[in-house]
Amino acid sequence: MLAERRHHLILRALRSGGPAAVTDLSEQLGVSPATIRRDLVKLEEDGLLTRVHGGAVVEEGDQPFAEVAEVRVTEKDAIAERAAAMISDGQSVLLDIGTTAYRLARQLHGRRLTVITSNLVVYEELADDEGIELVLLGGMVRREYRSLVGFLTEDNLRQLHADWLFLGTSGVRPGGQVMDTTVVEVPVKRAMIKASEKVVLLADTAKFPGHGMAKVCGPEELTAVVTNEPVDAVTHTSFQEAGVEVVVAGKVQA
């Protein structure tokens, strides 16, 4: 069995049944425990699972917005402040779903900007700011995560162009690939990338490697990454080779 196929089956087993032991996975897939251990190491390096004693688990994705919004607020605010400084008045800005994009929206009050978003919390934050031209994308409402998705959202994006996209993520692999836990959000994120002149990834240190099963884009589609601490050497090299600027809140990572 090819390694890629084993990896798919391992992740499927973990998502359907919770934690799984090396011995159980070995029996299910008909390979040696040593092979399973190597697979688990590789999948953990890619941010797709967490190894535990005797086996592995996959973290639950897609937490409700209200829960995620209370986590690492200081780090998100530092990232948001630095990202806001990149934008010039008069420009158009696409804000992705997620809590870091919401923290960025809070930094934009009083600016003369056009803000385009599928993030309902961003819309609510900026709705009363008369200096901001606010464009809310259509689509199917995901109530728990306060976002709009689907073909209507993607079709709206095909008719628009933005100077900046500030993109969220569930995790970043060492090769620089941007990942997401929720497949339904990925087409919208990809449509946002196509609609934007510059793409900036907002990712605190917990997102390296973070987690996520669906690839949003590779590093070559990013302009910059804004984070709150220097990223690991392997990921930083991947960004460098792709020409991506790594901005640590307050400085640029060399």
TrEMBL record:
Keywords: DNA-binding, Transcription, Transcription regulation. This is ArsR family transcriptional regulator. It comes from the Bacteria. One of its GO terms (molecular function) is DNA-binding transcription factor activity. PROSITE patterns: HTH_DEOR_1, HTH_DEOR_2. The keyword Transcription applies. SUPFAM superfamilies: NagB/RpiA/CoA transferase-like (SSF100950), Winged helix' DNA-binding domain (SSF46785). InterPro entries: ArsR-like_HTH (IPR011991), Carb_Metab_HTH_regulators (IPR050313), DeoR-like_C (IPR014036), DeoR_HTH (IPR001034), NagB/RpiA_transferase-like (IPR037171), Tscrpt_reg_HTH_DeoR_CS (IPR018356), Tscrpt_reg_HTH_GntR (IPR000524), WH-like_DNA-bd_sf (IPR036388). Residues 3-58 form the HTH deoR-type domain.
